[in-house]
Amino acid sequence: MYLLLIIPFLLQTVQTSSFGKKLSDAAIALTHQHVTYDAAYRVIPYPGGDVPSDRGVCSDVVIRAYRRLGVDLQRLVHEDMKRNFNVYPRLWGLSQPDPNIDHRRVPNLMTYFARHSTVKPISKDASDYVPGDIVCWRLTGNLTHIGIVVEPKSPDGRRHLIVHNIGAGQVMEDVLFAYTIIGHYRYERTGGVP
């Protein structure tokens, strides 16, 4: 009887690990593309829109990695904002959702993930952060930042690396604890609208 209760948990763990590896691989693949940091507002197609592939910011790393797995965060965030605009941050003076930019703003992604993913603890224990996790930070000047935890580890073997774009393009670096962590999420899905 006890074994029957454990089997579903073990199956879920295997699936979680599989998704995390796929997201990690997708993020790492992005580091092979040359991208110039560019936060300019652009009108892009909807759904499935993206800024030019040689441009982007930190949120575009997350958007592009999920898109490689068939998940369109542009559409998902926009649809959620249309239904629940009042729960999203009012930092940009908008009176309605804008599918060109909303998904590219870290506070909006944090709100979406808080509503539709597993919110994981924020800790100083590196083992709490596993491949496929999404981490958000507060930088100096009250700026927000986002990245993906990937499988490779730091040279000392203590922390997983992060794929992010903080100005030098889509790179993989040992920065998990370099900034103040303000969000930690596990978002596993295969597309669709929540």
Architecture overview:
This protein is of the alpha+beta class and 194 residues long. Strands 3-8-4-5-6-7 form a six-stranded antiparallel sheet. The protein has four helices and eight strands; from the N terminus they run αββαααββββββ. α1 packs across α2. It has a single domain, classed as endopeptidase fold (from Nostoc punctiforme) (Alpha-Beta Complex), CATH 3.90.1720.10.
- Strand/helix succession: HEEHHHEEEEEE
Alpha carbon gyration radius: 17 Å
Class per helix and strand makeup: alpha+beta
Tell me the number of strands. 8
Helix count, per DSSP? Answer: 4
Quote the beta fraction: 15-25%
- The average pLDDT is 92
Throw out a few tags for this protein.
disordered N terminus, two-stranded parallel ribbon, 194 residues, six-stranded antiparallel sheet, alpha+beta, 32% helix, endopeptidase fold (from Nostoc punctiforme)
